[in-house]
TrEMBL record:
<keyword id="KW-0479">Metal-binding</keyword>
<feature type="domain" description="Plastocyanin-like">
    <location>
        <begin position="432"/>
        <end position="563"/>
    </location>
</feature>
<dbReference type="InterPro" id="IPR034288">
    <property type="entry name" value="CuRO_1_LCC"/>
</dbReference>
<feature type="domain" description="Plastocyanin-like">
    <location>
        <begin position="43"/>
        <end position="157"/>
    </location>
</feature>
<keyword id="KW-0732">Signal</keyword>
<protein>
    <recommendedName>
        <fullName>Laccase</fullName>
        <ecNumber>1.10.3.2</ecNumber>
    </recommendedName>
</protein>
<dbReference type="InterPro" id="IPR011706">
    <property type="entry name" value="Cu-oxidase_C"/>
</dbReference>
<dbReference type="InterPro" id="IPR034285">
    <property type="entry name" value="CuRO_2_LCC"/>
</dbReference>
<feature type="signal peptide">
    <location>
        <begin position="1"/>
        <end position="35"/>
    </location>
</feature>
<dbReference type="InterPro" id="IPR008972">
    <property type="entry name" value="Cupredoxin"/>
</dbReference>
<keyword id="KW-0677">Repeat</keyword>
<dbReference type="InterPro" id="IPR034289">
    <property type="entry name" value="CuRO_3_LCC"/>
</dbReference>
<dbReference type="InterPro" id="IPR001117">
    <property type="entry name" value="Cu-oxidase_2nd"/>
</dbReference>
<dbReference type="InterPro" id="IPR011707">
    <property type="entry name" value="Cu-oxidase-like_N"/>
</dbReference>
<dbReference type="GO" id="GO:0048046">
    <property type="term" value="C:apoplast"/>
</dbReference>
<keyword id="KW-0052">Apoplast</keyword>
<keyword id="KW-0186">Copper</keyword>
Length: 581
């Protein structure tokens, strides 16, 4: 098999990687920075943790759950040495970091690297360029991120403030999560075997703590102390495995100032919705004369799934100082009025408020001209049940998920390494469909045949291609939202709506002036979202649903961005300690 169409042929075998290595010093010059080099060590190990009166051994970083907070400044170099002391394979993704020309540090297993095997080590070495705000890190192998996650805070360069009034103080980041009493690796492995939907979580958590609404958990309640009449900066991260979440603080209004490490025009809200993978910075102004010493902060799910889901509410406590209040029971904590679990209108109203600053200092560089128009259908499907077993998916099939009816197959080797070596045969195909292969009424009555196809397919792009991507939800196995995350790029959300995308009339309503810039966007339930991005970062970049159950079922694909002609437009060489498969 020759070089697939759309992929640059830089010679036979591994000549491309040899070329990169020969000029490693020259090509690596951009990693030299005026910023500091910040070193962290991740010892990944099994640790006994108790929640809901259940003790189990879970993967942790340095014995911490959640994991450690990483703090850098824009322009800093971050060096994280990972030592895997578990029996599981593992890799780590620095969610939202652009990893310019440096996909080797991006982290998704079998896409940019082989996983770090038990007893192995790997150094993630990258520079944070042109980014500031709240991001996060998490494991990117199977469902291990349910326990392996932590905040990644990027401070502005020294001397640069925020484009909003300076807050009195910054509160500790809050990470929303899920707790399973069962072993989550057993949960997903059983689901993949039987074809059924996986068992659901037992609780939601604030920084790993379920709080007083759950059995045996009043002592495991997250608390934040504040003073009256002050404005605080609060960083939120949804690290839940499979759930979008509503969030609110009783009797408080919040001001949103950032999304996915991109400043936005400030707006107020009493209730937020945040999808897995997304981050949000808020200004919380406390009451000058609070009527109570404690207020409830709460999260609850947003979903339209036809399957089961964790329909519980987790609570944390906002404590005003000075106070000796210690009660955290439900009777003393009126909950904020969160929307009903399936309130899609509330979600749409909230999502429509996001706008980029679009100032001279923080411009919105949305591509005006488009080189490639791409339409992806995003949703669930099925696989036939093998003849030698009984399956528990829809009508005796197995659940699957796909983009344009292609369910992604995990390769045996890392795609980035295969691309670097130009060894594509038997690894990937450059024929991912950029339009639905079988058009139908996507949000209406689904087709009779819901079987998906399978393959390790990528969309090749020439360097600096401007892309408009429309993500169209489907009603197959029920319409629901899908938080799509793109590695290696931010994108601009230029339009969204309900029903089927209309390529004739919908673009007239696009926002090309100040669209929000994100790395993760939810495809609306029974609707579509349009994004634009510039493919100016060479490498192989995963795009996937951030519901891990859908990722496990194959709802992902990869963009393969070829090198540009200039040295500064080419991939950096692979590191010497890159793990082997």
């Amino acid at each position: 098999m020759g070089t697939p169409r759309g992929l640059r042929n830089a010679g036979s075998s591994s000549s491309a990687c040899r070329f990169l290595a020969a000029f490693a010093v020259l090509l690596a010059l951009p990693t030299l920075t005026a910023g500091l080099t910040r070193h962290y060590t991740f010892n990944v190990q099994m640790t006994n943790v108790t929640r809901l009166c259940v003790t189990k051994s879970i993967p942790t970083v340095n014995g911490q759950f959640p994991g450690p907070k990483l703090v850098v400044r824009e322009g800093d170099r971050l060096v994280v040495k990972v030592h895997n002391h578990m029996n599981y394979n593992v890799s780590f993704h620095w969610h939202g970091i652009l990893q310019l020309r440096n996909g080797w540090a991006d982290g998704p297993s079998y896409i940019t690297q082989c996983p770090i095997q038990g007893g192995g080590s790997y150094v993630y070495d990258f520079t944070v360029t042109g980014q500031r705000g709240t991001l996060w890190w998490h494991a990117h192998f199977s469902w291990l991120r349910v326990h392996l996650y932590g905040p990644l805070v990027i401070l502005p360069k020294r001397g640069e403030g925020f484009p909003f009034p300076r807050p009195y103080k910054e509160l500790p980041p809050i990470m929303f999560g899920e707790w399973f009493n069962a072993d989550t690796e057993a949960v997903i492995n059983q689901a993949l075997q039987t074809g059924a939907g996986p068992n659901i979580s037992d609780a939601y958590t604030f920084n790993g703590l379920p709080g007083p609404t759950y059995n045996c958990s009043s002592k495991d309640t997250y608390k934040v102390k504040v003073q009256p009449g002050r404005t605080y900066l609060l960083r939120l991260i949804n690290s839940a495995l499979n759930d979008e979440l509503f969030f609110g603080i009783a009797n408080h209004t919040l001001t949103v100032v950032e999304a996915d490490a991109n400043y936005v025009k400030p707006f107020t809200a009493k209730t937020l919705v945040i999808s897995p993978g997304q981050t949000m910075n808020l200004l919380l102004t406390t009451a000058p004369n609070p009527g109570s010493p404690v207020y409830a902060m709460a999260i609850a799910p947003y979903t339209n799934t036809q399957g089961t889901f964790d329909n519980t509410t987790a609570v944390a406590v906002l404590e005003y100082a000075p106070t000796r209040a210690s009660a955290t029971g439900n009777n003393n904590l009126p909950l904020p009025p969160l929307p009903r679990y399936n309130d899609t209108n509330a979600v749409a109203n909230f999502s429509s408020k996001f706008r980029s600053l679009a100032t001279a200092r923080y411009p919105a560089r949305v591509p005006r001209a488009v080189d490639r128009h791409v339409l992806f259908t995003v949703g669930l499907g099925t696989d036939p049940c093998p003849s030698n077993q009984t399956c528990q998916g829809p009508n005796g099939t197995k659940f699957a998920a796909s983009i344009n009816n292609n369910s992604f197959v995990r390769p045996r080797v890392a795609l980035l390494e295969a691309h670097c070596q130009r060894r594509y045969a038997g690894v990937l195909m450059a024929n991912f469909p950029t339009a639905p292969p079988h058009p139908f009424n996507y949000t209406g009555t689904p087709p009779n045949n819901t079987f998906v196809t399978h393959g390790t397919r990528v969309v090749p792009l020439a360097f600096n291609t401007s892309v408009e991507l429309v993500l169209q939800g489907t009603s197959i196995q029920g319409a629901e939202s899908h938080p799509l995350h793109m590695h290696g790029f931010n994108f601009f959300v230029v339009g969204q709506g309900f029903g089927n995308y209309d390529p004739v009339n919908d673009p007239a309503n696009y926002n090309l002036v100040d669209p929000v810039e994100r790395n993760t966007v939810s495809v609306p339930t029974g609707g579509w979202v349009a994004v634009r991005f510039l493919a100016d970062n060479p490498g192989v970049w995963l795009m996937h649903c951030h519901f891990d159950v859908h990722l496990s079922w194959g709802l992902s694909m990869a963009w393969l961005v070829n090198d540009g002609p200039l040295p500064s437009q080419k991939m950096l060489p692979p590191p010497s300690d890159l793990p082997k498969c």
